[in-house]
Structure formats: structure tokens, C-alpha cells
Amino acid sequence: MDEKLNSSEMQKNIDQHLDEETLFVVSQTFKALSDPTRIRILNLLCSDEHSVNDIAEILYLGQSTVSHQLRFLKNLRLVKFRREGTTLYYSKDDDHIMNLLKQAIEHAAHN
User: Fold this and answer.
1) Which residues have CB under 8 Å from 89's CB, separation 6+?
2) CA–CA gap between residue 30 and residue 11 (Å, rounded)
3) What average pLDDT does range 12-36 have in this prediction?
């Protein structure tokens, strides 16, 4: 049975369409969350800020690996940094993504 959409329903459908930039950012965000190393780094930064060296030491990763992953996360505005002398300290920059990550971790841990 064909039913015509009224104008408010049509507007709602139009509003739900995503523009190309939004699609790209969302896909890149999920790409960031699809990598185990980036998940480990984001999970660590959920609670506190850390230097690159601290992250590498805590997660048993190479400093270059951590720097590379942090650059990717920073470009997506998922992490931010502050400089203290020659040391960069990274912290979370987006609570929405951190909440999504926490929910995904809780979902995975749920039996």
C-alpha cells in the first residue's frame, strides 16, 4: 500500500541525510576506534593526561608507534595536547567519543 509522506515527514527524511564531510568524519572516527592500539591509547587517556613516553611505557609500545597514533587521533580532534617544556602531554578532547568507547568496552565485557 503506497502512502504519501506528509511535508513534515519528508523534511525529517531530508534532515536525516548526511553530507559528504559528515560521512567522512564519522567513518574516520570509526576507523580510529577499529585499531587495537588506538583503543588502548584512548582508554588510557579517558582517565588522565599522559606524555608520549608515559603512554609508551604503560602500554609497552614504541615511542614512534605512540606518536604516530596520537597524530592520527589529534587530527580527528579525539585527543589534544599541551606542552610543558619539551614534553607534550596528551588528554582526551571529545567526551562523546570517550563515552562511545566506554560503551563498546562495556558491551564487549558483558556476558
Assistant:
1) 49, 50, 51, 81, 82, 83
2) 28
3) 85
